[in-house]
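Pinned message: reference record for Phosphoribosyltransferase domain-containing protein
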Amino acid sequence: MAGLYDVRPTVVVGPVSRGALVGALAAAALGVGFVEVRKNDGQATDSDRWIRRTTGPDYQDRHVVFGFRRDLVQSGDRVLMVDDWAATGETARVVRALVDDCGAQWIGAACIVDALGDARFRHDLPLRALLDVRNL
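Predicted structure (tokens):
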């Protein structure tokens, strides 16, 4: 399996709200498309066109529903997730499952701050970060 940055993404996804901001900036810098991954949206009139998944418990022990329109990520896309902070890895894991549901290729996750407690998640996702929370 290709590692992060071994393959150039064709789409960047970013969870709302700060992930959507830094994700859109990363997509613009890379010259690729961007998809906002929405959180806890109610039923839309076109809800049959949406794919959704629920996370395991996050850092506040909440379960969050994430989703996006199915037609925004295509089979064959190479997808990079960008976010501001990785605390438990649950957001990245559920977004990866959404990408898999679309038949696209997950190439990894990138964030500003890595606060993951379990190093296995960095390898499994794979995840790269600018800063480690232990150095802040």
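Pinned by admin. Summary line: The two ends are 32 Å apart (CA to CA).
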